[in-house]
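Ticket #491: bound-state structure for adenosine-5'-triphosphate.
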Amino acid sequence: MKVEVISGIVLGLFVFLVYLGYDITPLVVLLILAAIFYFMLQKKGLVKTESFQEVQSIRDFNFENIGGQEVAKQELKEALKFLIKSEEITLRGIRPLKGILLTGPPGTGKTLLAKAAANYSDAVYLFTSGSEFIEMYAGVGAQRVRKIFQSAREKAKKSNKNRAIIFIDEIDILGAQRGSHSSHMEYDQTLNQFLVEMDGLNAHEEINILVIGATNRPDLLDSALLRPGRFDRQVRVDVPTLEGRLEILKLHINNKKIASGVNLEDIAKETYGFSGAHLENVTNEAAILALRDNCPEINQYHLKEAIDKVMLGEKLNGKANSKVLNRVAIHEAGHALISELVKPNSVSQVTVTSRGNALGYVRQSQEEDQKLYTEAELRNQIKVCLAGAAAENMYLGDKSTGAGNDFQQAIKIVKTIINTGLSSLGVISVEDISPEQINTVIKEIIREEEIVVENLLRENLNLLTEIVNILKKEEKISGDVIRKIINQRAA
Ligand code: ATP
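RESOLUTION: The complex was predicted; output attached.
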């Protein structure tokens, strides 16, 4: 609108000057040069027309389109009542809710929740990111903050609505602790302006504005942002549980053709720790693999292969030489056998095909999302970590660098044992324990578990050899086949 008004005034002025008999050629040239300069700055991102976008496509997006995250959805819906029933809230003398902070790992659905929240509360929805407010020129960020709040009010009025939601992704960039940036004057000014705008929101306004911020790093935020009256509510959006994973898989497989025998529950079990974005990627990769195979429908093996691809990357070209393949097969068979012996049904698949940085790997399946572990369970995990190198040593007489990560993982678990008071040191204050003492306990526990693993492998050498042979021949073996081999021997 402003541009049209200015253009009109300039054109009128030119016509008037021509009418008075002035030569306006230098003025026109100057204007053209100024326009070129402005467009160049704009192209380089130094001048931005808008630092946010109004998202219109929220109409059909509901909380039902988001898998799992039941607690986050419930908390968010409850908080949205403040916006929907603002009059009742004011009558009851309740302070309006101005901000909700969604925190959690990347790809867990924070943006989706904000979008669904806008539709649920029938609000105008403006989307932006913390980085949009960061400029090297002083005052620009603050100006953009003012603009987005002003636009939210204008756009709501235009759409005949009395609510607006401003969603700020990566709010930690805008709201980091003041004084923490090198060019802190500009950053601080932007954050101060943001705080002023939030303080200015009140229930008596014609348009009610709710700010939803999202971040993976709430620890970086300035405490002023988190104080009551600003981001009052923090909603945790974590990686999905088993049921959540199943729901998300169902949502994303819905628009694809799948074979009748596909068991998504199995896939959900095997994707422990995956975010919603990872799961979406699994269904997408499975569809691509089916296309590659010229298969009209996605089969279970496409989904399983897609999990490996999302977890470790694309298969590498070419096969490892036989010496390396032999060592990798022994290593992975060691992990898998010990895993099944100490925790039956824990192995889903073992592969010796190189993917990404891995020469081979054991994919474990998790029945349920476990939050508590006993000392015995942690020690069993250590055994599984140590089993690869132990198997190499038993067969080939030496170990390799392939076990580096396994040892690091084992040490991490031992440290958990120490920190939670489950080691021989008892309940301790970790800061008051010397590194030597910790090292002694690490060595002690690792050695104890190594001895158990060596004995188990020796006692089950035939089983191990059988698994190694299948792996060398077929490059992979499923958990079911390993269990069959173990059960046959036991019978
Ligand atoms: P970031 O912190 O990186 O910004 P985010 O938490 O905002 O990530 P989204 O952008 O909401 O994550 O999700 C990314 C994509 O992952 C979505 O477009 C969707 O395909 C998928 N996704 C994530 N979580 C879910 C979920 N709970 N249900 C369905 N799909 C999901």
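RESOLUTION NOTES: The radius of gyration is 30 Å.
TICKET STATUS: resolved
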